[in-house]
Records
---
Amino acid sequence: MESTKTAASLNAQALDYQRKMSNPFIFWFAMLIKLPSAIFWRFRIKKLDANECIVTIPYFWRSQNPFRSIYFAALAGAAELSTGALCQLALAGKGKFSMLVVDFRAEYHKKANQKITFKCEQGNEVFDLIDSLAIEETAQLTMISTGTKSSGEVVARFYITWSFKRKA
């Protein structure tokens, strides 16, 4: 049986991270310091909990390419944020870790010519992985973020492999 984490199972630091990333002003300020392209492309975290993260990217002049669709790098950034925010939530309050993208693969299916919503639903997997790591142990997890149009039509799917190492 697959475990399902709830807000009640999040520690205080994870709840604080969740609250900050869900607040548009705090998110904007954090991205200004850590990831300015997220502001430029107007990423929004619509939902972040222990199970999933949902990130949107609008279709507008700053995110589009010359072919009247969203630039592939902007799509990749939104997808990475949907997986990375889940990883950060899982790491919050659990000690020192290093975290790094070690592999990346993308599939593009349709033209991204409207607001795209990226969803990663692997919160339980990343929480279980982080909780299982011993000091100085390393593990990897490939997380999938699927980008869809408002109609539900899949535009792109990104496979982002994160490497984690628990530090002493």
Note: The chain has a mean pLDDT of 94.
---
Amino acid sequence: MPYRPPRATPPAAFDDRVHSASIGTLATAFCVGGALTLLALSGSRTARAQPLAGPADGAPLMRAPLQVVAPVDLKRYAGLWHEQARLPNRFQKQCTGAVSAEYTPLEDGSVEVRNRCILADGSFDESVGSARAVPVAGQPGAGRLEVRFAPEWLGWLPLVWGDYWILKLDRDYQVALVGTPNRRYLWVLSRAPRLDDAALQAELDYARTLGFDVDKVELTGR
């Protein structure tokens, strides 16, 4: 069979109405898209201009970074503290009774940390570590520390250091609220073996305003 070339398809007729409708649709979409973009930008500027919620209006500071006490005199902070409450954590699961922490400043500027807790059988468990102050720009003596319980020769590894932030401290250095910036860990410490219930609740109420889940707090030795 001889090759028969295909017949050419005649060009479509130009229809003014069709093209006018298409151009109108594109123009409408462009206008709507532009309006939505302006609204989004306006909303973004408004959100940035509004201050973050804080304790003054009763909203937790979940979006705001935690602030530490400054300045903290580590020599006054040194000594024996008794744990009153804590958020559950894996390294204190075995503790069923009283828990204490003793801090001793050393000549090299670091602080010896000696934690002790009572176990279910009445014996005690003790861990000895080291703490160091972390400088904070514009806040000399800020209560931001790091604690290590790993062997000293591993001290160069950042992963062996845990955050220890002093979030609240009374003027007499009798009650302290300590936590971590990710809000996963929290402790209430006092010089007295047992803190008054009202005073303890005040510490927990303040921790709640900072965004800590105090409903999960365990009371120590009560």
Note: Confidence is low (pLDDT under 50) at residues 1-61.
---
Amino acid sequence: MNPQFSSYQKILGVNFFTGSAEQAVQIGLRGGLVVVPAAPALVELQTNESYREAVFNADLAITDSGLMVLVWRILTGKKLERVSGLKYLKLLFDLKALSPRESVLWIMPTAAARDQNLAWLRSQGYDFTAEDCYLAPNYSAGKIVDDALVALVTKRRPKNIVVCLGGGTQERLGLMLKRACDFRPGIHCIGAAIGFLTGNQVHIPTWADKFFLGWLFRCFSEPGKFIPRYWKAFQLVPMMIRFRENPPTLAAS
């Protein structure tokens, strides 16, 4: 491994990259599965075997969770650099990594989100169309099988696949693609990050993202949806106290 990219820290069994955002993007563009686990999704390491498998088998896990970074510092005294999914995505755009359009496949959750995201992308000078997007069906729990998506990826052979689905689902889908492909695309599971830019999600200012306050903006925007989600996220604290570097015990189903 390149020594300049040798900064990693195991937390709850996940091998998190702890270098800079710029280094993380360089690694992600080499190909492989990139995951951005938020606190509510990390809680599922105790209960969701398929999610657990996906995150443990990622090629790059970045430190998106401000809560995780804060608790780790309290427990160990070690300061980790937080790299949010939003910052990671902005760097992909800054580096012009998502062009030409033929080299990218976007996986979108709904037609409405696709159309709004495409309109924003075109306003930024990208010529993506609906043909560059795949609308994900509602995947069931457990391991994901999507033969139509695999066939599309095999035909197009994109250099980068950007997965804009919810946490807990996108990682499982990413692992399926990683294992099904006979080549090595970058599979960037950035979730709602593009929505923060396009208006499909509440706008999060750069300063708020820097100071770990994105969750607060989301709670104000849709309290009924996000307050329960982030309340659940606080289960991460006793998990980290108990397991620290080690994988949490998987609850019996």
Note: The first helix runs from residue 21 to 28.
---
Amino acid sequence: MIHLINVTKKFNRQTVAVNNATIHIEPGEFVSIVGQSGCGKTTIIRLLISEIKPDHGQIIIGGWDITKIKSYQIPLLRRQIGVVFQDFKLLPKKTVFENVAFALQVSGTTRGRINKIVPQVLKIVDLEDKLDRYPQELSGGERQRVAIARALVHRPKVLLADEPTGNLDAINSKEIINLLLKINDFGTTVLLVSHDKSIVNALKKRVITMEDGAIVQDQKIGKYVI
């Protein structure tokens, strides 16, 4: 599903964000990427959604070599990859329904299809009863669930979660991780970037550890060892 082959990304001569990284992730896997701040975890996410391009190496997602992807192809790529961020990135003046619908509107989805899909994904994240609420009326955990619903509207093959529990307390963090596991059970490949040792260790899933831009450990059933 995801293949990074000898990928290197530099931001200047002194800063090597990703250093000759090779990662192979199979369809349906749940994988955590861990490491200290600045080790290259978020750069991997940015490379996978073609926000930035590698200086060297090859990136293949679902059989599609995106290493030299054209700008007009990027929206198509991002409809196949759902992304969830630490800071939610919700539109404050739009309701829960409108925030989720917006991801469909920008891709030209019809109103009828939007009205069908949005309630379905809100049901998955247990927010079908709050579709008329605004972000400021929701808890942090609920806002993150809205963000996850928005990431699911195109039925992506891959879900990238970049520190999705970073702004949440322990209870809400557990709920979000359980939701990611539920989505993974549907067959979606999940890539979790996290600095939360307790969450990563409790998952008992594959763990890739990065240090100074390099992959230093890859455990099938791993722990946060840094």
Note: Residues 91-155 form one domain.
